[in-house]
Design a protein that fits this description.
Shape: globular
Helix content: 25-40%
Distance between the termini: 33 Å
Number of strands: 5
Radius of gyration: 14 Å
Largest sheet: 5 strands, antiparallel
Order of helices and strands: HEEEHHEE
């Protein structure tokens, strides 16, 4: 059920502390940790603690949490010293867009030039 922890979800296991992660920030509604396969010098994932399969389902159910995630992205960019040079935030939705863990998550990427279109 959406919003409830899923036993087979990697990110739910990180939220529950069952799988280790390098956590950089945590709030009441979110947790942010370094990506294990970084695509840029700064590559942090920001996830809701509640399980939703993608950003659209999260936004429909809990729009305030999407705002929390975006606010945390800005805080991370400032802490990582990439805010002034620019950074990218990305929600991949669906396998065709590159989503591999079906728990809503935002990528914060920066620390190098990021081309457009992303490819």
């Amino acid at each position: 059920m959406a919003g409830e922890p899923q036993a087979d979800c990697l990110f739910c296991k990180i939220v529950d502390g069952k799988v280790p992660a390098t956590v950089v920030r945590e709030t009441e509604t979110t947790i942010a940790f370094r990506d294990i396969s970084p695509q840029a010098p700064t590559h942090v994932l920001v996830i809701p603690k509640a399980h939703y399969p993608d950003a659209a389902s999260l936004a429909a159910a809990e729009p305030a949490v999407i705002a929390d995630i975006l606010r945390e992205a800005g805080e991370i960019a400032a802490e990582e010293k990439i805010a002034d040079q620019g950074y990218r935030v990305v929600f991949n939705t669906g396998a065709g867009a590159g989503q591999t863990v079906f728990h809503a998550h935002l990528h914060v990427l920066g620390g190098r030039g990021l081309q457009w279109p992303p490819g």
